[in-house]
Write a structure and sequence with these properties.
Elements (H helix, E strand, L loop, with lengths): L1 E6 L4 H12 L4 E7 L4 H11 L3 E4 L2 H10 L7 E4 H9 L6 E4 L7 H9 L4 E3 L2 H18 L3 E3 L2 H9 L8 E8 L17 H4 L9 H9 L1 H14 L6 E5 L5 E7 L4 E5 L5 H9 L13 H4 L13 H12 L3 H17 L5 H14 L8 H19 L1
Parallel strand pairs: 1-2, 1-5, 2-3, 3-4, 5-6, 6-7, 8-9
Antiparallel strand pairs: 8-10, 10-11
Helix pairs in contact: 2-3, 4-5, 5-6, 6-10, 6-14, 9-14, 10-13, 13-15, 14-15, 14-16, 15-16
Bound molecules: magnesium ion.
The site of magnesium ion (MG) has 4 residues, from helix 7.
């Protein structure tokens, strides 16, 4: 029986993880559930899965949660960063699912690694902000980090049994988002509702906006660089609007191996949770005859300049990827609050990056300082 801690259990990935637990109650037991503020859903999950601990963002939400739960509920209720770290590193855990949104995922992931607990990683910001530190710690502790992001799961599956030295480059696929065919001159007027309407993947609001700007793909380039030890210059992005090819690996002999499937996150999640065995998760393979064709195109870097910024941050390294990420989190929340326009997301991030003095080979403190600085700077720019 695998004991799981699910950090971000009320989000899109977390709910899919619990779907798989429901399908395989004989294989998985939920030991910890963590959310930020969605106490109503978390309370339901606690009553269904009976975890040893649960954690929310602060004392006020912990109190609310305890009032919703019936008297006699045995789950220990924690709050704050220390609570998340404790939940992520519980004794006897088999795996920690890191599915928080944003940089908040970093410290519990480090706590789990310190405790020698394997990670199923959906929170890409963890590797974007502190990839070197995280990968080094995982190596030192001999702990696997299994990707949950669909592209990285695809690459991980394509590399199965292959010699990493024979990899020529990685091909990350992108759906292109809802504005793939929108002319540049119409991009300034894009509304929140339009940006939240993703053509192929059902995801949370932050990542859906990141997909619309292609920042999501940029963050994934940096994530892939750390996970697979391939430089960003050898990671190419190709738009695959049907979202059937989830990513590919090109080898030195010109061979390309791709992983294909329906755009359903359960595939990548189940592969990470139960690696190396596959699970029957009631997802059917694509029907190729009815699809007819799969198309590919280059991303338009003039329209989607966030992707360019991410490559620049990956090239420069140091604290710049953290700054890119923090500025993006702030700009996206300002866009979701309808304080800035769609193209201001890119402008804000670029301005914050240009104002930053990069620290090379940063330690965690330097990363945190850069993150805090970038959030403050972005807040100034977005009101
Ligand atoms: Mg992805």
């Amino acid at each position: 029986m695998k004991q799981l801690a699910v950090l971000g259990s009320t989000g899109s990935i977390g709910k899919n993880v619990l779907e798989i637990v429901r399908l395989y109650p004989d294989r998985f037991k939920v030991a910890a559930l963590c959310a930020a503020t969605s106490v109503d859903l978390l309370a339901k999950q606690i009553q269904e899965f009976d975890p040893a601990v649960a954690c929310v963002i602060d004392e006020a939400h912990r109190k609310k949660l305890s009032q919703i739960l019936p008297a006699g509920c045995r789950t220990e209720l924690l709050c704050g960063e220390e609570g998340y770290k404790k939940a992520a590193s519980l004794e006897g855990l088999s795996m920690m699912v890191s599915a928080f949104v944003g940089a908040a995922g970093l410290s519990p992931t480090l706590a789990a690694l310190e405790a020698g607990i394997p990670i199923a990683l959906a929170n890409k910001e963890t590797l974007v902000t502190a990839g070197e530190i995280v990968m080094k710690l995982a190596q030192k502790k001999g702990v696997p980090i299994l990707p949950v992001d669909s592209e990285h799961s695809a690459i991980f599956q394509c590399l199965n049994g292959e010699n990493p030295k024979e990899v020529d480059h990685l091909l990350l696929t992108a759906s292109g988002g809802p504005f793939r065919t929108t002319p540049l001159k119409e991009m300034a007027g894009i509304t929140k509702a339009q940006a939240l309407n993703h053509p192929t993947w059902a995801m949370g609001p932050k990542i859906t906006i990141d997909s619309a700007t292609l920042m999501n793909k940029g963050l994934e380039v940096i994530e892939a660089h750390h996970l697979f030890g391939v430089s960003a210059s050898r990671i190419k992005v190709v738009v695959q609007p049907q979202s059937i090819v989830h990513s590919m690996v090109a080898f030195v002999d010109g061979t390309v191996i791709a992983q294909l499937g329906q755009p359903d996150m359960k595939g990548a999640i189940a592969y990470a949770l139960n690696h190396p065995e596959r699970l029957d998760i009631k997802v059917t393979p694509p029907d190729f005859a009815s699809l007819g064709c799969l198309t590919f195109e280059a991303p338009d870097l003039e329209k989607f300049r966030c992707l360019k910024l991410a490559y620049a941050a990956a090239d420069e390294g140091g604290t710049l990827p953290s700054v890119l990420n923090a500025a993006n989190e702030m700009a996206v929340s300002a866009f979701l609050a309808e304080r800035i326009g769609f193209l201001d997301i890119f402008r804000t991030i670029e301005e914050v990056m240009l104002a930053h003095s990069v620290v090379s080979s940063p330690d965690l403190d330097a990363i945190r300082r850069a993150d805090t600085w970038a959030r403050r700077k972005a807040a100034e720019l977005t009101g």
